[in-house]
Write a structure and sequence with these properties.
This protein is an all-alpha fold. Helix content is 84%, strand content 0%.
Length: 151
């Protein structure tokens, strides 16, 4: 008699273990696919009640491979958009750097022109002082153009 009791107890214990295992698996899957808590309890309850056939009766059809493909495509589009944005950012930085360099060259050119004009004026004044001539005559001697004379 004791052997029979142990076998029945062992089978009952195995069924309980299997039930707990399936409950845990179902709970884990439902958490993974982000099922609301109310529905989660309902579905796990069906597993505990051994109503497995009803478990997925009301679920919508879902193609996991299609969802994975769509997710991969969206990820690729996002990565391409990110790469384009990065390239545009780098291009904008290069343009900004070029504009700054051009601005710096313009400033240097303006400084050179100012120094040249100052030297030219100094030459005119030296000629006027050393030769006792007029500004007009000194400009003729230095071959300064009419446009420059009007400045």
């Amino acid at each position: 008699m004791k052997v029979g009791y142990i076998v029945i107890w062992s089978e009952k214990r195995q069924r309980q273990y299997n039930s707990d295992y399936y409950d845990g698996c179902t709970y884990g899957i439902l958490m993974r696919v982000n099922v609301p808590a109310v529905e989660e309890e309902n579905l796990v309850g069906k597993v505990k009640e051994k109503k497995m056939a009803e478990l997925f009766a009301n679920m919508e059809h879902m193609d996991i491979q299609e969802e994975q493909r769509k997710t991969a495509e969206q990820r690729q589009r996002a990565e391409r958009a990110e790469e384009r944005a990065e390239r545009e950012k780098e291009r904008a930085e290069r343009e900004k750097e070029r504009a700054e360099q051009a601005e710096e060259r313009i400033k240097r050119a303006e400084e050179i022109i100012k120094r040249a004009e100052a030297k030219e004026l100094q030459c005119i004044q030296n000629l006027m002082r050393n030769t006792s001539c007029s500004a007009e005559k000194a400009m003729d001697m230095l071959e300064i153009s009419v446009e420059k004379r009007e400045r």
